[in-house]
């Protein structure tokens, strides 16, 4: 393949898909997603994160690498190499009696907490510190010592000093250096071979302590002395020259750009590569030549150099040769910067940057809003000049995309079946079909992708969510449930259908919560056979019935579900988290029954009320219009109506209007506490409630979901704390009481100084995002 061919083709397939999809659907506000039983609401706020954005580029790139050269994404197994290093180091220690000398020199300077490590000799075979370098650095130095012309005693003393630097956290090195007679003799020696090896240790100490200019100067002096004495080859001069370059590189990275410009820095790298063309450090020096441009802000040059390296080494196309750590670093750099490479407006014109220039423009459709339409024609015309025939499907794919953009020729994914590009071709074709309203075709395509496992889960989720967005845009959310449902094919071969079903519980719930009228809800429920998806449809209305303390309505909704059948759905094998949440709902049945009986005994009502209140609080359930919704939902929700679907009697569905200020869980706890106090033998129950109520004012999460920002006076919490401390057994007490409500005013002022209605409990960007994997804990990568 040509120099830029692979990268050009690869990124065209990557970025044309990514650019087709929305880039402005950043995650909305909402509660943080790090709570123990909050996965549903995390998943709900994560919907935006499932829609392809610029970050999709990285996912598509990774998938193509998986298809063509998977080992580039796999971690390098260094276990054999590390074992070999430890064996060699051990042999060196034995041959030169290092433990004996180290005991004499360093034994009196071991830190007290490390005496066992030193006594057992573990410091000779295991690295405990990193500040002085790793055992691989030590091994390299030992290798050089063995090839030097130094006397054995000199080698032993130098080895102990280098070992002490690597294990510097175990010793009081400052005291050793001040008092060691041998060390003082070493530094008093005149310049020569031994002095150079000794100064190398000093330079390494400078380097590992972050004194890069001093380290670079000393490494350069060592190399010059070696050269002046006629030793122009060998470990010491070569490694000192390499470390000089490395120190200068880090000096630039640390912000010292005024000291060395990249061009000056690269004069050092070129000199090294000229003098040591076969050096083991060559690859790393070449990588630094590239990386220095990024440190100094010339991102265009950095991207060009990076892609040249990947192309020249044929990382993505050659099956020959082993993958080393530097190869992984290069690929990781490409993956980390892929979004910027694809969206940055570049001016120079070679294979990869032509593509980046093309894809930095907006509107990938045949009627797209191109800044310079002629550039699209020019770039597409060059496909054949940069793509060879080695990977015909890539050239064909690029041509298919350009044919659609320029001529409106319909794309087809069929030619790419059984190639790594099939998922991308399907996605491209699906986006075209969505734009043209061909929803039946889209459903078939998603089913096929799921059956074939033709893409990663996160990409499949993104496409499914895009399908929902198209329905919301057309104001036909019910059709997403009745017409776009995904049915498993090839029973016995699950494909990705179970994971897709878990995702659909999130999507169905959002549709049911915000977009379905009572009549639409009835149609959706009757048209959905899957018990898990029935649960997803009922769940938001069951939540609201409990919040509104509509106990009869909650019972009726709960009875509509066969909880045993829901828990037996095979898709739950993919998500224990979702299964556990469903169990929580199923277990509430008896509590709802007790609350619906107005004549229930005080103790039974107190227990049921506290259980339901704790369920609402702990699971972060709040009034439906109080959720900080994602932009995906807000973009198509004209107004959040304060209603929920209510089952008044069997077969009688209505819409109930919600109360403006339903009771918060803490108010339910307070009633339950009063009820318990009317019953004897409820000391433990009362103490438990008091502890919960005290903790309700600890931190924004508890305030949000237990208090719901009700303005409860501070003296209430102090009173509960004092009551628990004075009237209940010592074992029931807590150490502190809390009142984390310093800014309660009825409005919330975010960091930008904007006043927001208090119903939105977190500022827009406060929620922690997509940190818990996929919806309900699925692993999506």
Characterise this structure.
With 781 residues, the protein is an all-alpha fold. Helices cover 59% and strands 2% of the residues. The chain is built from 39 helices and four strands. It has a two-stranded antiparallel sheet with strand order 1-2. The longest helix is centred in the N-terminal third of the chain and has 19 residues, at 235-253. The protein is flat and about 100 Å long. 42% of the residues are buried. The model is unreliable at 1-57, 345-372, 742-746 and 757-774 (pLDDT under 50).
**Radius of gyration using CA atoms only:** 34 Å
Give me the side-by-side strand order of the main sheet: 1-2
How many DSSP H or I helices? 39
Q: Helix coverage percent of residues?
A: 55-70%
Structural class: mainly alpha
What is the β-strand count? 4
List unreliable stretches of 5+ residues: 1-57, 345-372, 742-746, 757-774
Major sheet:
2 strands, antiparallel
Amino- and carboxy-terminal Cα gap = 30 Å
What value does the average pLDDT take? 75
What gross morphology would you assign? flat
β content, as a range?
under 5%
Quick summary of this structure?
The chain has 781 residues and is mainly alpha-helical.
What distinguishing features does this structure have?
781 residues, two-stranded antiparallel ribbon, disordered N terminus
How do the strands and helices of this protein lay out in sequence?
Layout (H helix, E strand, L loop, with lengths): L4 H16 L18 H7 L1 H4 L5 H14 L9 H17 L2 H9 L8 H6 L14 H13 L4 H15 L6 H7 L1 H7 L5 H16 L3 H17 L6 H19 L8 H14 L6 H14 L3 H14 L12 H19 L7 H9 L13 H9 L1 H4 L5 H16 L14 H14 L3 H14 L4 H17 L3 H6 L14 H18 L3 H9 L4 H17 L3 H9 L3 H5 L8 H11 L2 H8 L5 H17 L12 H4 L8 E7 L2 E6 L7 H12 L6 H13 L3 H9 L6 H14 L19 E3 L5 E3 L24
Helix pairs in contact: 1-4, 1-19, 1-22, 1-23, 4-18, 5-8, 6-9, 8-9, 9-12, 12-13, 12-14, 13-14, 14-15, 14-16, 15-16, 16-17, 17-18, 23-24, 24-25, 25-27, 27-29, 29-30, 30-33, 33-34, 34-36, 36-37, 37-39
